[in-house]
Each structure stands twice: as C-alpha cells, then as structure tokens.
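Action item from last week, closing it out:
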Amino acid sequence: MIGPTATDSHTLAVVRRVESMEVTAAGDTLRERVDAAAVRLELLPRFRALPSVHPTPAAPAAETHAAATYELSRHVSLAAYEPCAVADAGPRVRYLRRDAAGAVVTDVMLHRSGE
C-alpha cells in the first residue's frame, strides 16, 4: 500500500506511508512498513518472472534500469511504474525482495488499485 504524499516544512522531501505484506509458500507473513518513505532513484534489475522456489542471482549491471523506488528495508523495495513501455496495462507497483547475499528472491509486478 502506498499512501498519499506529505511534505515536511523543514525539508524539501516529499514522503509517503508505504506498507507491504508477502505471504511465503510456507505460510509465513513478511510485513514491512515505513511511515515516511522518500522516493529515490535506484538501478533495478530488468523485470522477469522468477521461479517461486529457486532464487536467481542479481542481474548484472548491464541488465538494470533506473526506477523511482521506495525502500522499505535493506532487502525490500517498491517501485511505482506509470503507464510506459514497462507497464502495458496501466500503472503498476513492483515488489522486489532480495536475500542477505543480494540475490532476488521475490520480484512481482502488481496492478495498482484505488487512488
């Protein structure tokens, strides 16, 4: 969930409340929440569906592209994609989680719901 934008009168930052929830195959729930996440530019690996049980190594730098992201933790990022070549069906949100070694273990593109 990505909340509405807010500003701080003392800084130039625009922030949002961002929360994610992932349910693993084992039934565990992974939750991340940041009440004042600032958008930042990050180089993300090119999106491709991953097998659900076999993590793949992080993509080499040549296969990355810039995206506006919200960092929820050291391992979890959300990227908001507006209509463009990456998102044929309209706005989407990408959820990207890495393991401690930096390998991408969850990479999904979700349709944005509700404004």
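Closing note: The longest strand covers residues 29-45.
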